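As a representative case, the lines below give one protein's residues and fold tokens.
***
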Amino acid sequence: MPGYTPSFLAAALLPLALAVTACGSEMNRQLESISITPASATGATASYTATGTFNTPPATVTPLPVSWFLMGPAIDPPGPGYTLVNEAFTTNRCSQAQVNAALNYTVIAVAPVDPGAPASGPMPSQVFEDLVITHSKTAEGGFVAATAALTCP
């Protein structure tokens, strides 16, 4: 091109190339795993926090926006879907009138692999079954899950 030097073109195109590269790395960012703290709790009130581990920096995020579920005795399973909240999960399940036996519950945190996914939406029934109802997998169908325990004495 007349009047333009190669160094001028390189300088003009460098910001565009960097922006495209940055967008590409953000688009490839994926949630790899979730951990819940504490891993188990006993008593009247318990509070849980989710931490996510990603494949690109920042490698960990606490609190991680997740959809929280509580499964156990006398709890009907919810429908297959998720709603992300960016706060700890607190339950007072044990403060309800209890029978003379220990009751065990499972606290589940679920989030989409894609951090840019909508804050709520449907989840395939089989994925919901495996991650939330039976806890047989920790990742499936574009979602990642973790579990923690709650024991009511």
